[in-house]
Amino acid sequence: MLLPLHRFARQRLFPRSIKIAVLFLSLTGVTHALPVNYELEFDQLEHADLALEQVQIKLVSDHRHDYTLSLQAAHLFYKDQTVKNTEFSEVHVDCQATLENNIVYCHAGELRLQHVTLGRLNARMQFRYHLQDGLQELALENLALANGRVNVRFDNNDQINRWQLDLQTLDIAALHDVMAGFGLSAPAGVDVDKDSLQGELSAEMTLQGDPEQAFTARLSLTNFHFTDGNNVAQAVDLQGKFSATLDAEHWQGQTQWQLLKGELYVLPLVDVFTIDPGFYIAIDKEPLVMHSHFDWQPATQNLLLTDFQYAHPEVLALTATAVIDLAGDKPLRLLNLQVPAFQLAQAFPVYLEPLLINTAFNELNVSGTAGVELRWQPDGLESMALLLDAVSIDDGRERFTVNGLSTDMQVAAGQTGRTTLHWQEIDIYRLAFGAGRIGFASDGLNLQITDWQDVDILEGSLRIDQLDMQALGSAGFSLHMAGGLQDASVVALTRTLGWPAFGGDLSGDFSGLRYSQGQLRMDGELQLQLFGGQVRMTDLEILDLFGPVPRLAANVMVKAIDLERLTDTFAFGKITGKLSGHVSGLQLEDWQPVAFTAELSTRPIAGVEKVRHRISQRALNNISQIGGGLSGALSRGFLSYFDEYSYGELGISCRLSNGICELGGVDRFADGHYLLTRGGLFPPWVEVKLNGTMIGWEALIRGFQNIAEGEIQIQ
């Protein structure tokens, strides 16, 4: 016998939980030994943060404990508004269930519902519901999502909520659309290029606790492709494990990742030299492995990484501790880093070269062994231990080369110590320095020279009297240096620089040389003894020393250069006299002159011994080529009988601007200048006039070089 249908249509019931409805059915069913058929309607049913609207429940049974349960609702939604678009419509649940001992057990059911962006969703369903304790078990299986399958399980058998989520081969691009449909986006600053997304995600995740206090996950990405305009992944296979527990509003746990194959270009969380360096990582054979413990504070957005281990096979391995403020403009707040000895030839292109990409050192080839330990904060380096063994550095722009560089340096704030630095060879702008060794005393992050081994240079030697380095590893790093040069060969210098060859020796001292932030300045002066005279350089300043276009500025004073010793060193011809003058406002760009005003002559000056002024026929001919020809009382034919002649004064000036040299001489006449004036009591008298005053700087230099080599002369 079938009991009459119990209908509550149009009658408004507002229970606070769906369990009230099920309890009503249970109590009613128990009182009947005969088959039953019930129908209930509700405006709204609630359970936790879930709510159903316009609900219709049907219960049909032919036996006392076996039921066919169906539920229909117009809407199902999640009341927490932190996630958007959580409303579903056309909700249907059909279930074969039993009702016994206050437990509703759905052992075979189906869930169907509609979503505005996901479309129609279907899943196999099981659940166990206790009329007093609430939901005990739930299983949703084979839910089609993002071109893959999702299984959801819940249990509360031991009075602890446990959710399990199983994702099977979800398409990454489709999953991105799913997340966007719920208003879930990538972190700030990450602008995902949807067209670049490719790959499959599989995962097993568990969340347990009441409230949720523990989370574990295993994830696998296959053939992953991605770019956000900064970071790039291509054909990446990645596996990861993650576990965390909630303790006093801190999530604490550990994570491990294995990069099995593929290519990555990744920007880190810290800028270096005002740029965000990018690291290119390609996996060939063995996987790259990362492991770390962490402490995450959601309220402050602070992340503490401890026992961070990173192993890139055949490249390098490191351990680290870091504090990261994900809400800050400069996220990295503390870094303790230990990198055992590694080979620079493999590691430098991957992990160090990107740090230099927008600096003057972005074309280096480096080899040898290195290791480092450091502690860093946003204010700068706090401590560093640096190991270098047989390191070679070759600048691709041919500015410098270092071979055999070795040190075991240790510096730390508030501590003192000693260290040494030695090398086999250093070339700087083609100037070759021999092997050397420096002993340093450290006081905090400052180094001061205590021992110096003179270094061979230009067949002479370089002496260092003072070498201080301040604030190592910070933006305020500076260097202060003083010393001297002894018996260096001018021949070697001119040959090295590609200048016209002439001989002599260089000796002198320099003081007050300071380097800071790419700028080299000399507070004192550089004094050189050259060809029996003196050269003084003041106001020396080099900007962007190791940049693409170094710029030098200086003033130079020349006093009493012995012309006989100078001209005797090359094929110009012999001249006697003392040359003095200046080069003011000297400016070089990329080591080539771009501007100066120079005046050099044999005019007498105080403190300079007077000597006879004589000039050889060859020198006279060469000067006449500069001036445009000889003038005077005697013809060239007559002059050819003499080997040398007396002269009054000799001099030349040049004002260089825009590649043009405006020439001048030692004296003026109506239409121009004299390069050489008459002198002596008896003939023959000679003089050289300057015809024309403008000449290209490169043409002038080529002419001087050709004269010095005894070849063609300036035209």
Task: Explain the layout of strands and helices.
Elements: H1 18-30, E1 36-47, E2 50-61, E3 66-78, E4 88-100, E5 103-115, E6 119-130, E7 134-145, E8 148-155, E9 162-171, H2 172-181, E10 198-209, E11 212-227, E12 232-247, E13 250-266, E14 279-283, E15 288-297, E16 302-312, E17 316-325, E18 332-343, H3 344-352, E19 364-377, E20 380-395, E21 400-412, E22 416-423, E23 425-428, E24 431-433, E25 436-443, E26 446-452, E27 455-457, E28 460-470, E29 478-489, H4 490-497, E30 505-516, E31 519-522, E32 525-530, E33 533-543, E34 551-562, H5 563-567, E35 578-589, E36 592-601, E37 614-616, H6 617-627, E38 630-631, H7 636-639, E39 644-646, E40 651-657, E41 660-665, E42 667-669, E43 672-676, E44 687-690, E45 694-696, H8 697-708
Antiparallel strand pairs: 1-2, 2-3, 3-4, 4-5, 5-6, 6-7, 7-8, 8-9, 9-10, 10-11, 11-12, 12-13, 13-14, 13-15, 15-16, 16-17, 17-18, 18-19, 19-20, 20-21, 21-22, 21-23, 22-25, 23-24, 25-26, 26-28, 27-28, 28-29, 29-30, 30-31, 30-32, 31-33, 32-33, 33-34, 34-35, 35-36, 36-40, 37-39, 38-44, 40-41, ...
Low-confidence stretches: 1-18, 27-33, 629-635, 711-715
Calculate the mean pLDDT score and round it: 82
Query: Terminal Cα separation, in Å?
Result: 130 Å
Strand content: over 45%
User: Fraction of residues in helices?
Assistant: 10-25%
